[in-house]
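One thing: mind reviewing this one?
=====
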Amino acid sequence: KLTNDIYLNDTTKADWKDTAKEWVAGDVRFSGTLDGNGYTIHGLYITKTHSLGRYGLFAYIGAANSSSPNSMIKNIKFSNAYVNIAEAVEGAGLVAGQASGAPSFEEVYVDETCVMNVPQGKGVAALIARGPTGTYTGYTVNIKNCVVLAQITGGTYVGALTGTFWRTGET
C-alpha cells in the first residue's frame, strides 16, 4: 500500500525526458496487490528495448497458472508517463506488458500527461498490453472504474485499457 506519491523522475521541468532515468521491469511477474491508496506514480519512462519482451511498470502481472493467487492493481494514478519505443515489440503497457491468471484493475487513473508512442507495437495500451494468450481456460481479467486519458499510438491491437487478448480452448 502506497503512503506517498512516487517520483520515478523529476517531471517539473519541460525537458525532463532529456535526463530521465529509464525504467526496466525485467522479466519479473508481479503477483499480489498494489494498493495505490489514491497516490500517483510520476515520470515512468520507457524508451529502450531489451530481450525480455514485455514493457510496463510490470512486465507481467497475474498468476502463472489458474491455481495461483490473483493479482490486483487498485486506487492508483499515473502522471507524466512516457513510453516511446521505436522497435517492433509485443506488449507495451503503462501498468503491465502482459496479464495472466485473473488479475483485477480497479480505480486506476492514467491522466492526459501520459504519452505512449509504439509505432511498431503489437499490443499497446495503458493498463494491459497483452492479455492471456494461447490455449488456456479459466483466465479472466477484471477492469472496474478505470479511466485512461493518455495519448496512445501503436502498430496493431492498440487500446486505452487493453491491447490484444486472444486465446483458444474455451468452451
In short: DSSP finds no helices and 17 strands in the chain. Residues 40 and 63 are 25 Å apart (CA to CA). The mean pLDDT is 87.
